[in-house]
């Protein structure tokens, strides 16, 4: 009753979500809604015959950027497997990363009505959440167009949904920063306190994990220059007023290619980066703006599943 990988993921933003991650996440979400597998939907299974077949439209109730449509087929297939029914088929009209209008049909789903109604909330929860993140990201990407700067996400994600939310950032036109604590070292003020100095923290990371890049957080121009001298690969410029940020960018650029400083140092602005301030910050010459709000504060994009009347 399963479906092939091609059928499951017809609309994917590269790099796509790991199918194994999708399957595990959907299973956990269904357990929450139905109870431990196989679970039950007491309303639907009491009121809808198991042999009833129908169609439903996945519809955008708001304009925005969609993401997470890629989870739909897996969600439907797992519900079908739990109930011993045929897996519905999804015909996609929109793709992850598309801008859509209110009222637009994103996909049509055909199959057992019990499966459609039981899978509805899990499917919508995941796709609406991802679409909200993609919509917020697209707004920043548009604001930064032509500046040379990109918008990045952070680790301020929903536990268990990081892969989905970072995928949604990519769908919205943003860039993933580090995926976790394991792939990039970020030396922050507490690490400096623990190590005794910026140079000590950098040296400790290089000795222990020589394969990772090292970013250092700086609150002032002086801290940024100190971090450069200590061997930082790139800098996180935190909560700087725009004039201070611009001065720091100039100071760093003047040192590039000299005294062991790389020819180009990636500079990332962060802290209090609202949409109305984004372009002003980008025009200081930073390479990136990291915005935690993309994932920790983005409202969902309202999506609905409308069963067609027979």
TrEMBL record:
InterPro entries: Aldolase_TIM, NadC, NadC/ModD, Nicotinate_pribotase-like_C, Quinolinate_PRibosylTase_N_sf, Quinolinate_PRibosylTrfase_C, Quinolinate_PRibosylTrfase_N. Pathway: Cofactor biosynthesis; NAD(+) biosynthesis; nicotinate D-ribonucleotide from quinolinate: step 1/1. NCBIfam families: nadC. It catalyses: nicotinate beta-D-ribonucleotide + CO2 + diphosphate = quinolinate + 5-phospho-alpha-D-ribose 1-diphosphate + 2 H(+). PANTHER family: NICOTINATE-NUCLEOTIDE PYROPHOSPHORYLASE [CARBOXYLATING] (PTHR32179). CDD domains: QPRTase (cd01572). Involved in the catabolism of quinolinic acid (QA). Coiled coil: none annotated. It is an enzyme of class 2 (transferase). The keyword Transferase applies. This is nicotinate-nucleotide diphosphorylase (carboxylating). Residues 41-131 form the Quinolinate phosphoribosyl transferase N-terminal domain. Keywords: Glycosyltransferase, Pyridine nucleotide biosynthesis, Transferase. Belongs to the NadC/ModD family. Its EC number is 2.4.2.19. It comes from the Bacteria. Signal peptide: none annotated. Residues 133-306 form the Quinolinate phosphoribosyl transferase C-terminal domain.
């Amino acid at each position: 009753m399963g479906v092939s990988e091609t059928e499951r993921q017809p609309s994917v933003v590269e790099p796509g979500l790991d199918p194994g991650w999708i399957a595990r996440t959907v299973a956990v979400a269904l357990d929450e809604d139905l109870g431990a597998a196989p679970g039950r939907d007491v309303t639907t299974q009491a009121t809808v015959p198991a042999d009833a077949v129908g169609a439903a439209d996945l519809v955008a109730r708001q304009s925005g950027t969609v993401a997470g449509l890629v989870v739909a087929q897996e969600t439907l297939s797992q519900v079908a497997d739990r109930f011993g029914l045929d897996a519905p088929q999804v015909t996609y009209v929109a793709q992850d990363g598309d801008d859509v209008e209110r009222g637009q049909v994103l996909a049509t789903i055909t199959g057992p009505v019990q499966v459609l109604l039981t899978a509805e909330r899990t499917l919508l929860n995941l796709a609406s959440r991802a679409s909200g993140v993609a919509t917020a990201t697209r707004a920043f990407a548009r604001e930064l167009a032509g500046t040379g700067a990109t918008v990045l996400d952070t680790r301020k994600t929903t536990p268990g949904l990081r892969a989905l939310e970072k995928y949604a950032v990519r769908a919205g036109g943003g860039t993933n920063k580090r995926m976790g604590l394991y792939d990039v070292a970020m030396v922050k003020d507490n690490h400096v306190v623990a190590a005794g100095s910026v140079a000590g923290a950098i040296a400790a990371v290089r000795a222990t994990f020589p394969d990772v890049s090292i970013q250092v957080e700086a609150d002032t121009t002086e801290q940024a220059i100190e971090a450069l001298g200590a061997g930082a690969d790139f800098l996180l410029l935190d909560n700087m007023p725009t004039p201070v940020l611009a001065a720091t960018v100039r100071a760093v650029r003047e040192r590039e290619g000299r005294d062991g400083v790389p020819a180009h140092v990636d500079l990332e602005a962060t802290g209090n980066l609202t949409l109305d301030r984004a372009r002003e910050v980008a025009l200081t010459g930073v390479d990136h703006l990291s915005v935690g709000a993309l994932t920790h504060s983005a409202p969902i994009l309202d999506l609905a599943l409308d069963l067609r009347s027979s």
